[in-house]
Amino acid sequence: MGTTTPAPANAPPEIPKAPFYFEAGFALFAKRPSRPFPPPFLSAPSGSFSEPLSTYDRSRDRRPTVHGEMIRGVTNGDDAVLVSEQFIGANDGVGAWATRERGHAALWSRLILHFWALEIEHAAISPSAEPDPVSYLQRAFEKTQEATSSPTTDSAWLGTTTACAALLSADTSTPAHPILYVTQIGDSQILVVRPRTQQVVFKTTEQWHWFDCPRQLGTNSPDTPAADAALDRVPLEEDDIVLAMTDGVGDNLWEHEVVQSVVASLDKWQSGAAQAQLGKDPAEQTYADGMRFVAQELVSAARVIAEDPFAESPYMEKAVDEGLSIEGGKLDDISVVAAQCKRRKG
């Protein structure tokens, strides 16, 4: 867990593209360790020790790369998250690919976020030049297809992933107002909570082929960003909280429970009780640390249900609606990014 996902040391400094930015943090729970990224994305170990079981726990000098550049984001089981000042995302790799010899859903979910973030970094985005996140995702998808089928990998690496992300920009009014561009394929989720009213002001709609088979990008899937991605333009207020979550949250917590968790953890942080609980000086903490705490609390709440075979859950309710006898929560990777919209000073 942390406040930002790693970026290459030699990456150019991020140029502010809007008068607003995210104070953000993320938290993760993996139902099982991810497969190590294969060569050439992760070089073979130099000694006799085996590969680390999780790309999230790897040492700093063994971060995965593509085309000679560190892969942006963080892997969590088959999920991937990415956090920057203007862009947050949560992709959910389809775990069934783990049964295939060359299946690697975690690689697909991470690479798509990586290339998506690079497309946004290189785009000329400003209040007077609206972004086109769907075209950025389409190019990221094509680059992931190319990278996973490169001749240097001997044969293709197979996988599919959902994709959802939020890009923060602004309108052209004076003073400017924040605008959120939300892109979605599948059942990961972007949720916007307004602390001032303790209400949800925006929520993405899940996209399904059939029960437990969401729309997804990758091997043998008919879905593409250009044809199937949903794009929403959402007006924000300062201090709105944007959540990017994989279905490990939505399958285990109802919407009102998510809001309750966010509001309660935010109140706890602002009162100083959370910092005291963690043994930290409130004066030394940042808004980003507060968002990390919000994300941690949400992951913890979802995990309680996920590990309870007798709990009532949204996943159980959906299954019953399909005529299936399923009880309890759904044990899954749980990935949460919590980001608060702030106005840039100066």
UniProtKB/TrEMBL annotation:
<dbReference type="Pfam" id="PF13672">
    <property type="entry name" value="PP2C_2"/>
</dbReference>
<keyword id="KW-0904">Protein phosphatase</keyword>
<dbReference type="InterPro" id="IPR036457">
    <property type="entry name" value="PPM-type-like_dom_sf"/>
</dbReference>
<keyword id="KW-0460">Magnesium</keyword>
<keyword id="KW-0479">Metal-binding</keyword>
<dbReference type="GO" id="GO:0046872">
    <property type="term" value="F:metal ion binding"/>
</dbReference>
<comment type="similarity">
    <text>Belongs to the PP2C family.</text>
</comment>
<keyword id="KW-0378">Hydrolase</keyword>
<feature type="region of interest" description="Disordered">
    <location>
        <begin position="41"/>
        <end position="61"/>
    </location>
</feature>
<dbReference type="InterPro" id="IPR001932">
    <property type="entry name" value="PPM-type_phosphatase-like_dom"/>
</dbReference>
<dbReference type="InterPro" id="IPR039123">
    <property type="entry name" value="PPTC7"/>
</dbReference>
<protein>
    <recommendedName>
        <fullName>Protein phosphatase</fullName>
        <ecNumber>3.1.3.16</ecNumber>
    </recommendedName>
</protein>
<feature type="domain" description="PPM-type phosphatase">
    <location>
        <begin position="55"/>
        <end position="341"/>
    </location>
</feature>
<dbReference type="GO" id="GO:0004722">
    <property type="term" value="F:protein serine/threonine phosphatase activity"/>
</dbReference>
<keyword id="KW-0464">Manganese</keyword>
